[in-house]
Amino acid sequence: MIPYKHEPFTDFSKEENKAAYLEGLATVEGYLGQAYPLIIGGERVTTEDQITSYNPAKKTEVIGTVSKATKDLAEKAMQVADETFKMWSQVEPEIRADVLFKAASIIRRRKFEFSALLTLEAGKPWNEADADTAEAIDFLEYYARQMLRLKDGQKVESRVGEYNRYDYIPLGVGIVISPWNFPFAIMAGTTVAAVVTGNTVLLKPASTTPVVAYKFIEVLEEAGLPAGVVNYVPGSGAEVGDYLVDHPRTRFVSFTGSRDVGLRINQRASVLNEGQIWMKRVIAEMGGKDTIVVDKEADLELAAQSIVKSAFGFSGQKCSACSRAVIVEDVYDEVVERVAELTKELTIGDPTNPDNFMATVIDEAAFKKITSYIEIGKTEGKLLVGGTADDSVGYFVHPTVFADVAPSARIMKEEIFGPVVAIAKAKDFDEAIQIANDTEYGLTGAVITKNRLNQEKARKEFHVGNLYFNRGCTGAIVGYQPFGGFNMSGTDSKAGGPDYLQLHMQAKTTSEMF
Ligand SMILES: NC(=O)c1ccc[n+]([C@@H]2O[C@H](COP(=O)([O-])OP(=O)(O)OC[C@H]3O[C@@H](n4cnc5c(N)ncnc54)[C@H](O)[C@@H]3O)[C@@H](O)[C@H]2O)c1
Ligand SMILES: N[C@@H](CCC=O)C(=O)O
Hints:
Elements lengths: L14 H16 L3 E3 L1 E3 L2 E3 L4 E6 L2 E10 L3 H18 L4 H17 L1 H12 L3 H25 L11 E9 L2 E5 L7 H12 L3 E5 L5 H13 L7 E3 L4 H10 L3 E7 L2 H11 L11 E5 L4 E5 L5 H13 L9 E7 H16 L19 H17 L1 E4 L3 E2 L5 E2 L2 E4 L6 H4 L6 E7 L2 H9 L3 E2 L1 E5 L3 H10 L4 E4 L16 E2 L17 E9 L1
Parallel strand pairs: 1-5, 7-8, 7-10, 8-9, 10-11, 12-13, 12-20, 13-18, 17-18, 20-21
Antiparallel strand pairs: 2-3, 4-5, 6-23, 14-17, 15-16, 19-22
Helix pairs in contact: 1-4, 2-8, 3-5, 4-5, 5-6, 10-11
Bound molecules: nicotinamide-adenine-dinucleotide and 5-oxo-L-norvaline.
């Protein structure tokens, strides 16, 4: 087995890659509008009630319709997953890992098709879609190798006449609930982490991006995953989500999404239901209010570039996005001016056109939420760029910069999840770190500085799960920058890290005398 290395990003300046992407788009356009069933124990189940997935950049274009699980179907899927666990939990870890390796190579072969689907279903510009697909491949490759590392447990000591072992065994049925903003990588990563560790899964993808999840289940089937190990049950969060989270046979929930839904799941999962004989585990990766701090001794061009790219990449719809910049007063005006200039240069439009840096936000609800925050921002800061939006064809919100915002302002505190950045001034570096920490979240952050002592101070005092120096605050890579945050950003599970798989297993000690 070759050592793990992350999947390279595609160079779209090369004509052959451009052509491959266009071919991917043509493939996806060939299957737009199809209907997708639920998958329970390998069986295709079609329901009358359907979820419709639309293209956010052409809001009437249907990507596909997907059957919608009811409580009865969710119950059926739970029974199948529970039964299948008896078999899958006994399958050798090497065989489970092989399914992931094979799935990775199938996706690699269909890489441009998957990225094109992300462009159409989630509104991802080419490079963002390519990164999402690459990350899905990375999760498969990385977790397969991690499982092979953990398959014989960890070394413990034994005394003379004694043989002690410390092994990991799977937990049971896991409910995987995924978000729409990394509809491939996070959906696939959270699913396969549960699967490779010997658990069975009920996957409830986000309702705005269910088609890519269906296509992924087909890949797992092609890779040899037995029926019933992953069951595809899209549905209403409130109805099916609550039912499955509450279910006494649910052993764990792996959730990625907003703070409020994460807290609700955590609370409900803590309730003991009739027939339940365990405490459910909850892995919850939630929102962020992420900050780039700019010191006075810093590469100011790098600072401005980092702010703009981290704030507006994929329209700011990343939990890691830079939604706040805190700049030390000595260099404040210069950096703010450059951020405004760079933002004005950004190109916005349909994501199928590779010349567009930015496209839409995901749907009407997001459009309304973000534009209402822009109105709030107008009362809280100085609007430098943007502040406009257009939903006549798709959900376009223009990149928006507010300067001179007070640290206590709502746009400095609340997750907007759109292309809006608030900039605040700090009198010195210490105050900048203080402002950055003044949030209930703690996901990502970046510091742009040439001052080594300030950098080390931030390393200790900037309280975020992923802290970056002299770069932007998005774009963690599986196996290189394990990802997850503190406080209201979740349980800090560190997806793509060396401890992640253990969250899906329990350790068993055996001690034999001879
Ligand atoms: N920390 C991370 O790693 C990370 C990664 C991506 C996104 N996010 C966060 O996700 C949010 C954006 O994603 P979103 O809008 O899809 O989040 P969301 O919380 O609205 O939805 C996430 C998932 O939860 C489901 N859901 C909704 N209500 C539910 C309920 N009552 N029970 C069970 N499931 C329910 C949704 O259908 C969806 O599948 C942002 O806050 C972002 O910061 C965090
Ligand atoms: N892991 C991604 C963010 C995932 C959440 O949206 C990043 O590092 O930018």
